[in-house]
C-alpha cells in the first residue's frame, strides 16, 4: 500500500460504495429471475457482483485494488441492508481474490480485454468453489451444477470483464480519470494513433 496515494484510496472507496448499492439492487433482480429460472436465475447475472473488482483494478492498476474494492463493497452492502449478513463479506473477499489472482498472474503489467475477462472468470471460479459448499450446490444434480458453473463463468467474463472495461473506458473518455493509469494509457494510445496517421 506504500505506493497508494490519497486519490487512489478515494476512488477505490467511492467505487465500492456505488457498487455496493448496485449489488443490493441486483440482488432483487436476481430474486425475480430465480422465480422464473430456478437456481440458474442468479448465474445469468452473477458477473455483476464481480464488476467493481475489475473496474477498480483497470482504473488504478495497483496490486490489491481488485481484492480491496470487492471486500469493501461487500462490507458496505451488509451495512446498508443485505440480509445475508457478515458471511457476505467473506464471499466478497473470495470473489475479489479470484479476480486479484489473475492480475497477479500477469504481474500487474497487462490490463487488456483478455486479462479483464480472465479476471471476471477468476472471480467466477473462486466464488463458485465457495458457493458449492456454502450454498449447498452438492444437493443439486450434477448436470445442473455444471451448467450453473458454465453460465457463471460466461457471466463473469462478459458482465464483469467486458462491461467493466466498457464502463471504465467511458469514464476515461470524459477526462475525469486523466491523472490515473487508465487515463494516461488512453492518452498514450491516442498519441500513438495520431503519430501513425501522420506517418
**Into how many domains do the coordinates divide?**
1
Along the chain, the helix and strand elements come as HHHHHHHH
Principal-axes shape call: globular
**Total helical elements:** 8
User: Which structural class do the helices and strands define?
Assistant: mainly alpha
The residue-averaged pLDDT reads 92
CATH class: Mainly Alpha
CATH A-level architecture: Orthogonal Bundle
Report the portion of residues in β strands.
Answer: under 5%
| Unreliable stretches covering 5 or more consecutive residues | none
Report the biggest beta sheet as strand number plus sense, adding barrel if it closes.
Answer: none
CATH-defined topology: Arp2/3 complex 21 kDa subunit ARPC3
Strand elements, count = 0
Percent range of helical residues: over 70%
C-alpha end-to-end distance: 42 Å
- Tell me the Rg in angstroms: 17 Å
Transmembrane segments: 9-29, 41-60, 72-94, 114-133, 145-167
InterPro entries: ABC_thiamin-permease_prd
Keywords: Membrane, Transmembrane, Transmembrane helix
Pfam family, one: ABC_cobalt
Structural overview:
With 199 residues, the chain is an all-alpha fold. The chain has one domain (6-197): Arp2/3 complex 21 kDa subunit ARPC3 (Orthogonal Bundle), CATH 1.10.1760. The protein has helices at residues 6-37, 40-45, 51-60, 65-79, 87-105, 113-134, 142-174, 181-198. The longest helix is centred in the C-terminal third of the chain and has 33 residues, at 142-174. It is globular, with a radius of gyration of 17 Å. It starts with 5 loop residues before the first helix and ends with a helix. The relative contact order is 0.14.
Amino acid at each position: 500500500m506504500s505506493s497508494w496515494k490519497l486519490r487512489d484510496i478515494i476512488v477505490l472507496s467511492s467505487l465500492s460504495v456505488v457498487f455496493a448499492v448496485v449489488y443490493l439492487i441486483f440482488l432483487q433482480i436476481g430474486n425475480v429471475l430465480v422465480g422464473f429460472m430456478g437456481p440458474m436465475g442468479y448465474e445469468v447475472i452473477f458477473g455483476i457482483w464481480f464488476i467493481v473488482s475489475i473496474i477498480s483494478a483497470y482504473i488504478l492498476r495497483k496490486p490489491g485494488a481488485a481484492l480491496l474494492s470487492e471486500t469493501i463493497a461487500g462490507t458496505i452492502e451488509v451495512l446498508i441492508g443485505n440480509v445475508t449478513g457478515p458471511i457476505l463479506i467473506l464471499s466478497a473477499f473470495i470473489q475479489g481474490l479470484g479476480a486479484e489472482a489473475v492480475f497477479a498472474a500477469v504481474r500487474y503489467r497487462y490490463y487488456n480485454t483478455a486479462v479483464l475477462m480472465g479476471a471476471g472468470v477468476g472471480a467466477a471460479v473462486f466464488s463458485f468453489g465457495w458457493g458449492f459448499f456454502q450454498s449447498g450446490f452438492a444437493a443439486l444434480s450434477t448436470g445442473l451444477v455444471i451448467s450453473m458453473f458454465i453460465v457463471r463463468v460466461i457471466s463473469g467474463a462478459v458482465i464483469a470483464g467486458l462491461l467493466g472495461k466498457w464502463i471504465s473506458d467511458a469514464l476515461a473518455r470524459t477526462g475525469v480519470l486523466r491523472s490515473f493509469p487508465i487515463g494516461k494509457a488512453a492518452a498514450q494510445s491516442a498519441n500513438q494513433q495520431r503519430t501513425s496517421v501522420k506517418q
